[in-house]
Write a structure and sequence with these properties.
This protein has 9 helices and 8 strands. α3 packs across α4. The mean pLDDT is about 90. The relative contact order is 0.14. Strands 1-2-3-4-5-6-7-8 form an 8-stranded parallel beta barrel. The chain is globular. α6 links the parallel β6 and β7. The chain starts with 7 loop residues before the first strand and ends in a 25-residue tail after the last helix. By secondary structure, the chain is α/β, with parallel strands linked by helices.
C-alpha cells in the first residue's frame, strides 16, 4: 500500500527557529516539540532527521522517555578543516561531537550518520573521512553511513569510488536531477537507499507568489505557474507534492520539515493521489534549486 507513513522521516532543522523562509514566525520549544514527538509515537512513527550542526536542536528533543525512535544525523566537513588536523585528531573530534549529541538526545546510537556535502570534498579527504567513519561504525555508535548531497554530477563521480548505505538528496516537482538514468542505475546496482528531502523546497512550493520574501521574488514566475496550476485544477499543494515523490518507486524514504504541529497533522492526513498528472514543472535554475544559496 502506498502511504506516506511507511516512508516518513521528520526533519528537525526548523526546530532551531532559524531555518526556512518564514524564520521566527513559528517558535519551537521543548513543550511543543514534545507534543509533536508524542503524536508521532502514538501513530507508530519513529524516524527523525537532525544534524550535529544544529546546535540548539538536540537539547530541545528529549528521547530519554521515548522508545524505538530512530535518528539519522549529519556531520559536516570542509577540505580546510580536514587538512589541518591528523586522521587520529579528526576521529577524536568526530567521536566527541557524536557523544555530546547522543547524550543531549538521550540516544544509545544513531540509525545513521550522513556526511554532509561529501561530494564536494577532494578525493583524498573523501577517502580519509570514509575510512574514519567506517572504523567508528564498528563500535556500533551508528548503524549506517550515508551521504547528504546537493551536487548530483559530483555525486556520480563519488559513487564510482565509494558505496554509502544511504543517499539523502533533494527531489521535488522543480528539481528532477535525481531522475538521471545513469545515476539511478549505479545507485540501484550498489543497493543504496534513497532518502528524498526538499520535497517542499524549503517551503517555497507552499507559499503564495504574492507572499514571497523580497530576496527570492526573482523566482516569481515558476512559483506563480505552479500556484496557478493548483488553483485551476483545485489541487491541494501538499497532497500533490507528496504524491509526486511517493509515486517515484526509487524513493525509499522522505524527509519532511514542518512549520508547526498543525502542518504535521495536515501532512499526515494528506491523501495520496495515484492518478495525479503533474504538469512538467522541471527547472534548471541551480540557484533556485539550492536553498543553501538563498
Amino acid at each position: 500500500m502506498l502511504t506516506l507513513k511507511n516512508k516518513l522521516i521528520l526533519g528537525t532543522a526548523q526546530f532551531d527557529n532559524h531555518y526556512g523562509l518564514l524564520k521566527n514566525k513559528f517558535k519551537f520549544n521543548k513543550d511543543n516539540i514534545k507534543k509533536i514527538l508524542d503524536y508521532l509515537q502514538k501513530l507508530g512513527l519513529n524516524a527523525l532527521d537532525t544534524s550535529l550542526e544544529y546546535k540548539n536542536v538536540d537539547q530541545k528533543i528529549n528521547l530519554k522517555s521515548k522508545k524505538n525512535f530512530r535518528v539519522i544525523s549529519k556531520i559536516k566537513f570542509s577540505n580546510k578543516d580536514i587538512n589541518k588536523i591528523s586522521k587520529k585528531e579528526l576521529e577524536n573530534k568526530i567521536l566527541k561531537s557524536i557523544k555530546i549529541s547522543k547524550k543531549n538526545l538521550g540516544l544509545v546510537r544513531f540509525e545513521a550518520l550522513l556526511i554532509h556535502n561529501f561530494e564536494t570534498l577532494s578525493f583524498k579527504n573523501q577517502k580519509k573521512i570514509f575510512e574514519i567513519l567506517t572504523d567508528i561504525k564498528k563500535t556500533r555508535i551508528y548503524n549506517k553511513i550515508g551521504f547528504s548531497i546537493y551536487d548530483f554530477q559530483k555525486l556520480l563521480k563519488s559513487l564510482k569510488k565509494f558505496t554509502p548505505e544511504i543517499i539523502q538528496c533533494p527531489y521535488n516537482i522543480f528539481d528532477r536531477r535525481l531522475e538521471n538514468k545513469t545515476l539511478i542505475k549505479l545507485i540501484k546496482q550498489k543497493k543504496i537507499s534513497i532518502h528524498a528531502r526538499s520535497v517542499f523546497l524549503k517551503g517555497l512550493l507552499l507559499i503564495r507568489p504574492d507572499k514571497l520574501p523580497k530576496k527570492i521574488k526573482k523566482f516569481f514566475k515558476p512559483i506563480n505557474n505552479w500556484h496557478s496550476w493548483t488553483l485551476k485544477n483545485k489541487i491541494n499543494k501538499i497532497s500533490a507534492l507528496l504524491s509526486f515523490v511517493l509515486l517515484n518507486k526509487n524513493i525509499d524514504k522522505i524527509v519532511i520539515g514542518i512549520q508547526d504541529f498543525n502542518q504535521l497533522k495536515e501532512i499526515l492526513k494528506s491523501k495520496i493521489n495515484k492518478k495525479i498528472n503533474i504538469k512538467n514543472f522541471k527547472i534548471n535554475n541551480h540557484e533556485m534549486l539550492s536553498p543553501n544559496k538563498w
